[in-house]
TrEMBL record, chain A:
It holds the Pfam family BPD_transp_2. Belongs to the binding-protein-dependent transport system permease family. LivHM subfamily. This is Branched-chain amino acid transport system permease protein. It is found in: Cell membrane. It comes from the Bacteria.
TrEMBL record, chain B:
Keywords: Signal. Belongs to the leucine-binding protein family. Residues 32-373 form the Leucine-binding protein domain. Pfam families: Peripla_BP_6. This is Branched-chain amino acid transport system substrate-binding protein. The keyword Signal applies. Residues 1-23 form the signal peptide. It comes from Deinococcus budaensis. CDD domains: PBP1_SBP-like.
Length: 296, 407
């Protein structure tokens, strides 16, 4: 009975792990390529969920079109921010972009809250999964919501595609080159600025996607990203800042770990990730999959 | 003779007029009664109290001035944000009393903030009427001569819902609660109410992190344990997530009911009433309880643009009760008003059969066990509750014999 319950929790942990993985993947792409610590990632995740909700309210768009459209809109917003604001801070200390993105987070949250209160009279709104994915399925060892299975599957697929594009394709090679040595890359006739904007767009687009996926599970509310982002940063640090594979594996692992924690001693569930972070940093200061700063 | 009578008459009339005038000019500090609404204007409880509570207190002030012309222009309302933080609540309370000359504090969502402000008010000798804070400590070990607990508390919630659900056949429970003062207290009270009614706990309650978004672990645990009731002591945004995921995991279809510790109208609005349909909760009031309540609610809605929550309506009632006490005491001095409040019996659109217990300052009133209607049964927007039973004031709250309060 107890072993079975434990196995169920491990399986269940993959769902929250999927969100950690998608979010930290975006953060890792942005940090690894652009050296931007994007504190706004949580707010953009929330914006993904909110956009999906708003598209449904305003145009009657269902889950599937929103799953495609909302991340694109969020990516667009991200690219505008990168061009308009963040790009002005390149070359300055990282604390400047941290402050800017933190400020933008507060601004976005309050703005969304105001919009929701004035337009929909509530600041926390329901969002339901598409009919085909609603309901539960009996997996033999547990009765589990279909939608959550879909989240695990899609998230794995997206992580795989992102990893493949960056590590194995020509596009990925250009991206890696433009961040390692912008001068030389430019000499090959490549517009580095455009690539940087594009990468930032993809990174925040992933956050937007996670937001849409989260909307049917958690309620859509202005502060939904605030809590998650702290854990996600811990995941990125554990995995090794900027390591794509590291953030994906650590993301899923932390989700499972938290679920096991909740099984044995619930109050510790949310603290476990920080204990793990402290331990990893003691042993490997550059994270599990990160290279030491000098080796870059 | 005739002249003498006239003089006597005139002088008597003059004396009478002077007496009346003297009686009417209450001894008000700086000639004004200032009501301080200390509330959450920006955070998680801002929708269920917040600006709506400030508006409710303003309406009470207006209605009071209309009924008592001698107070016209002498009642003012100040609204301040305590951000649900105990230290901020403490500082703001002191600032409102010292700098803004506030004569009383009202509302106080978040138990920790309410306790902090109550300490300050005690040292400054200013009455506090806690409406939206839930901890029973306010009228037990942390009670004081200047603090009154209006509307609800954790004992009343547990006593109402725990008893009602258990008696209707929900006699085996698994409870989760947020791990802070409010949740721990409510869990204790709820377990006591369940066991007292011959129900049992299938396993010990689980403390969840606070705040928290993902409750799937506990829902899966419930699936395995198969209690008749999944009890959630979460509130606000956390409660909304619990209920959403309760439906997602199909617990209702598996025969596991939902027991809710604290429920506000705004939580139901956030998720749609179908998600909550069938759930039982205990409330001190709701807007379409009866015609009197509806009339007041319509007035509030006209002024604020939204229907009142029971917290906001409670702020109106508490403010009015305070102002009436000021009128009876003919003073806004803390000690005089406290004396006028203690032992007072009254009944308004909100507080029925109400009595302010002098021994612990618990304001007892009739409360209601309600069931959330499915949307299809709602007759109009916001029609969410069906009354299951009225719990009379005398039975709704912790009996005086159990109180740990010593002034």
């Amino acid at each position: 009975m107890n072993t079975q319950l434990l196995l169920i929790q491990v399986f269940n942990g993959l769902v929250s792990g999927a969100f950690y993985a998608l979010l930290s993947l975006g953060l890792a792409v942005i940090f690894g390529m652009l050296r931007i610590v994007n504190f706004m990632h949580g707010a953009l995740y929330m914006l993904g969920a909110f956009t999906a909700f708003a598209l449904g309210q305003a145009f009657g768009l269902g889950f599937w079109p929103s799953l495609l459209l909302a991340p694109l809109i969020v990516a667009g917003i991200g690219m505008v921010l990168e061009r308009g604001l963040l790009s002005r801070l390149y070359g300055l200390e990282p604390s400047y972009n941290l402050l800017l993105t933190f400020g933008l987070t507060l601004l976005t949250q309050d703005l969304v809250k105001q919009v929701m209160l004035s337009q929909y009279a509530v600041s926390s709104a329901p969002y339901t999964p598409p009919a085909v994915l609603s309901g539960v399925v009996n997996l033999g060892f547990v009765v589990f919501p279909k939608y959550r299975l879909f989240v695990i599957g899609l998230s794995l697929l997206i992580c795989l595609i992102t990893w493949f594009v960056i590590e194995k394709t020509r596009v990925g090679a250009i991206i890696r080159a433009s961040t390692e040595n912008p001068g030389v890359t430019r000499a090959f006739g490549i517009d580095v600025g455009k690539w940087v904007t594009g990468v930032f767009g993809v990174g925040v687009g992933l956050a937007g996607l996670a937001g849409v996926l989260a909307a049917p599970i958690y309620s859509v509310e202005p502060y939904m990203g605030a809590e998650l982002i702290i854990t996600t940063f811990a995941v990125v640090v554990i995995g090794g800042m900027g390591s794509i594979l590291g953030s994906v594996i650590t993301g899923f692992a932390v989700g499972v770990l938290a679920a096991i924690g909740a099984f044995f001693y619930p109050p510790i569930a949310n603290t476990l990730v920080f204990i793990l972070m402290a331990l990893v940093l003691l042993v490997r200061p550059s994270g599990l999959f990160g290279l030491p700063e000098g080796a870059r | 003779m005739h002249k003498k009578t006239l003089t006597a008459l005139v002088s008597t009339a003059f004396c009478a007029a002077v007496t009346v005038a003297l009686a009417q000019s209450a001894r008000l500090s700086d000639n004004t009664v200032r009501v301080g609404v200390l509330t959450d204007l920006s955070g998680v409880y801002s929708e269920l109290s917040g600006q709506g509570s400030v508006r409710a207190a303003q309406l009470a002030a207006q209605d009071f001035m209309a009924a008592n012309p001698s107070y016209r222009g002498k009642v003012q309302v100040v609204g301040v944000d305590h951000q649900n933080k105990a230290d901020v609540a403490s500082n703001k309370a002191a600032e409102m009393i010292d700098r803004q000359n506030v004569d009383m504090l009202v509302d106080l969502p978040t138990s920790s903030a309410a306790l902090a402000a109550s300490e300050v008010a005690k040292s400054k000798k200013i009455p506090v009427m806690v409406v939206t804070g839930g901890t029973t400590a306010l009228t037990n070990e942390k009670c004081n001569k200047y603090t009154f607990h209006y509307a609800y508390d954790n004992y009343m919630l547990a006593n109402g819902t725990g008893t009602a659900v258990t008696k209707r056949g929900g006699n085996s429970w698994y409870i989760i609660y947020p791990n802070y003062a409010f949740g721990q207290d409510l869990n204790r009270q709820m377990m006591a109410a369940v066991t007292e009614n011959k129900g049992r706990m299938v396993t010990q309650s689980d403390a969840t992190p606070f705040p928290n978004t993902d409750f799937s672990s506990y829902l899966l645990k419930a699936q395995g344990l198969r209690p008749k009731v999944f009890g959630t002591m979460q509130a606000g945004a956390d409660l909304v997530n619990v209920v959403k995921q309760y439906n997602e995991f199909g617990l209702r279809q598996q025969g596991i009911g939902l027991g809710i510790g604290l429920l506000f109208e705004t939580d139901v609005a956030a998720l749609g009433q179908d998600a909550f349909a069938g759930a039982l909760a205990t409330v001190p009031w709701y807007w379409n309880l009866d015609q009197r309540s509806r009339t007041w609610a319509a007035k509030f809605e006209k002024s604020f643009g939204k229907k009142p929550t029971w917290a906001q309506a409670g702020v109106y009632s508490a403010t009015m009760t305070y102002l009436n006490a000021v009128a009876r005491a003919k003073s806004d001095g803390g000690d005089a008003v406290v004396k006028a409040l203690e032992g007072h019996r009254f009944s308004d659109f909100y507080a029925r059969s109400a009595y302010i217990r002098p021994q612990d300052h618990r304001v007892i009133l009739d409360v209601y066990t309600v069931q959330v209607k499915p949307r299809s049964q709602a007759k109009e927007a916001g029609d969410i509750f069906t009354k299951v039973s009225t719990i009379p004031a005398a039975r709704a709250f912790q009996p005086l014999s159990e109180s740990k309060c010593k002034f």
